[in-house]
Every structure is written in structure tokens, then in C-alpha cells.
Amino acid sequence: MATLSVITVLVAWEFVPRLLKIDTFIFPPLSAVLNKFTDGATLTLLYQHAQVTIYEALVGLAIGIFLGVSVGFVLAEWSVTRKAVYPFIVAFQSMPKVALAPLFIIWFGFGYTPKILVVVMLVFFPMLVNTMNGILSTDPARLDLFKSLCASRWQVWRRLLLPSALPSMFAGLEVAVVNSFIGAITGEFVGADAGLGVLLQQFKNAYDTPAVFAILVILALVGVLLNQSVRLCRRRFVFWQ
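RESULT FIELD:
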């Protein structure tokens, strides 16, 4: 069914603009977009700038996952800390990342750091919330059982709390992998000299709509690939669901 849906969308993308005589500048057919991947100069640019964006997204994703999971475990373990710190985290998360990105550029320049920080912010919160809520949703009866068996703190975390939190953590990870590329592109829009966000603006300024769509296709494919990778890992590690 999924394959049929994809084929239907691709066929419609190719023929609807032609049948409606929509100008390529407005909405290019699929063939015009695919032609960009056969153009040597465009393909070279896409490859070079995609490397930058993928690096920023993956590094920010890794850091955001580590921080989100770590802080989520801490806040779940100590309720006093959770009540004191969590409102500030929510307040910070409510700030538009586009507004924060220029500050990062002022503080850290135009290198990788500002874009990676934007990615970290977008990844951190869903990982924190899902980790914390996953642990807090642990069955109290099972927790009491572990305590009655004199299980150590490490055994409780490893055998009970972590397995209980894994489904929620993977749900957060599915959101985080998508957010990582949104963060990288957002950071590049605000200020960068390389990356798909920069290239997207260049193609837009040149009125090269098929090339803009080519970048969107790349981002969509990478997002789907990462999402499917997370789903495979979930089936591997959360095998009881």
C-alpha cells in the first residue's frame, strides 16, 4: 500500500503540472527535478553542501540525544530537581530558535558551532520529555517488587526503569531525527557560508525552482532513511512490543 501511494504521488507530480500547464518556475514536474541530479555542476554543489548539513545534523543529534536522555534520567530520579528545573527548560524551549540563531552566530561566529547548537536545542527537548515521562510511567508495583528483592539502584535502572522508558525514548527519537535537519537548515538560513540551507537560498535567488525541489527531495529522503533506521532499532531493542 505504501509503495502504491508513493508511485501515485510521483506520477501525479510528473503529469499534473504538465496537464495544468503550470510554469516550471512555479511548480516543476518530477522529470525537471530529476534532471538536476544528472547535471554535473549541480550534482557537485549538492554533494558538497549536503556533507556540511548532514555533519551538522548528525553531530547535533548525537549531542542532543546524550544531553536529553541524561537530563531526563536526572529529572525523573529527583522530583525536587524536576520541579525546580523543568519550568526553566520549558520556557527556554518556547523561545523561537530562529531568534536564538543570530545570537549563536554573534557568540561563536559562522562555523559549525551555531548550527550544531540549534540542532541540539531541537533534539534535546523531545528526548528529555520522552525519557523522563517513560521512567515516571514505570509500574509502581514492579518498582516495589524490585525493592522487596533488595535490588541495587543499578539493577533497578537497568532491569526496570530503562526497559520501561525505551518505547517512549524511541518515540522521542523519531521526532528528534527529523528536528535535527530542520535545525541545521534553520541555522544555515540565518548565517552560514556552506550547507543545503545556503544552497537553497542561492537557487531561490537564481529562480532555479527545480534545483530548490532537488534539495527538498534530498532532505526528505534523508529524513525517511533516518526515521526507518530508528524504527528498525526500536523493533530490535523494544522487541516485547
